[in-house]
């Protein structure tokens, strides 16, 4: 798949995460797969996508402790 197609697919997944936050974990896995495809083909991962991926992962680690009693 061409770089532009993969990049467009990634942005679509990011839009879906915004629209359906309840499905974020499933969509994040799809995002990771697309990024892995880019890397697997030796293509660069745009910085903005890397930042967004990191932010989503940081949000996940925050969620991990939200349900814990204090």
Quick rundown:
The protein is an all-alpha fold. It contains three helices and no strands.
Describe it.
With 70 residues, this protein is mainly alpha-helical. The protein has one domain. The protein is built from three helices and no strands. The protein has helices spanning 3-19, 24-40, 47-66. Helix 1 packs antiparallel against helix 2. The mean pLDDT is 84.
Summarize the topology.
Blueprint lengths: L2 H17 L4 H17 L6 H20 L4
Label this structure with key terms.
mainly alpha, 3 helices, 70 residues
Number of domains: 1
Alpha carbon gyration radius: 13 Å
- Global morphology: globular
SS class: mainly alpha
Distance between the termini: 48 Å
Given as residue ranges, the uncertain stretches (5+ residues, pLDDT < 50) are none
Order of helices and strands: HHH
Q: How many helical stretches?
A: 3
Amount of helix: over 70%
Report the sheet-strand fraction: under 5%
Reported for the largest beta sheet, the result is:
none
Number of strands: 0
Mean pLDDT: 84
């Amino acid at each position: 798949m061409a770089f532009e197609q993969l990049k467009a697919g990634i942005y679509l997944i990011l839009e879906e995460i915004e629209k359906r936050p309840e499905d974020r974990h499933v969509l994040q896995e799809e995002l990771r797969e697309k990024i892995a495809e880019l890397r697997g083909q030796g293509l660069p991962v745009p910085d903005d996508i890397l930042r967004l991926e990191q932010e989503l992962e940081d949000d996940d680690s925050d969620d991990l402790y939200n349900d814990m009693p204090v």
